[in-house]
Specification:
By secondary structure, the protein is mainly α. The chain is built from 5 helices and 2 strands, in the order H-H-H-H-H-E-E. Strand 1 and strand 2 form a beta hairpin. Helix 1 crosses helix 4 and helix 3 crosses helix 4. The longest helix has 18 residues. It is elongated and about 50 Å long.
Length: 117
C-alpha cells in the first residue's frame, strides 16, 4: 500500500512508485486497452507484441497523467516519440559551452549507472 498515495489503491492516478511493484487489476486492464489501441493505430506490431522498450516504463505514468484515457495517452506517446527523435542523442557541441562554464547539474543515472546531465 505504500506505493499509493495515502495507501489508497482504488483511486485512479494515486500511484507514486511505478517500477518493480505489482500492478492493480485496473492498471493491468488499462494497459491492455492502451496496447490494443496502439496496435490499432500502428504504433506497435500487434496486440500480442511487447511495448517498445522506450515506452514500456512510461506507459503507466502517461496513462495516469491522462486519467486512464487511452486515446489521450496515445496522443501523448506520439508527441513523446517525435520529441525523442528530434532531441536525442544530444551532440557534444550542443552542450559544450555549458560544460566549459564549469557548472553541471547531475540529473541522476541511467540504467547502466552512467551520470545523466
Amino acid at each position: 500500500n505504500e506505493i499509493f498515495h495515502n495507501g489508497d489503491a482504488t483511486n485512479a492516478g494515486s500511484r507514486h512508485i511505478f517500477l518493480n511493484t505489482p500492478l492493480s487489476t485496473a492498471e493491468n486492464t488499462a494497459l491492455g486497452e492502451l496496447h490494443a489501441l496502439l496496435a490499432k493505430r500502428g504504433m506497435v506490431g500487434s496486440e500480442t507484441s511487447a511495448f517498445p522498450r522506450y515506452m514500456e516504463s512510461q506507459a503507466l505514468r502517461i496513462l495516469q497523467a491522462c486519467k486512464f484515457n487511452a486515446s489521450k495517452a496515445v496522443d501523448i506517446m506520439k508527441i513523446s516519440v517525435k520529441e525523442r527523435v528530434r532531441r536525442l542523442p544530444i551532440a557534444e557541441e550542443d552542450v559544450l559551452s555549458d560544460l566549459n562554464k564549469g557548472f553541471i547539474y547531475w540529473h541522476g543515472r541511467d540504467r547502466k549507472c552512467r551520470p545523466c546531465l
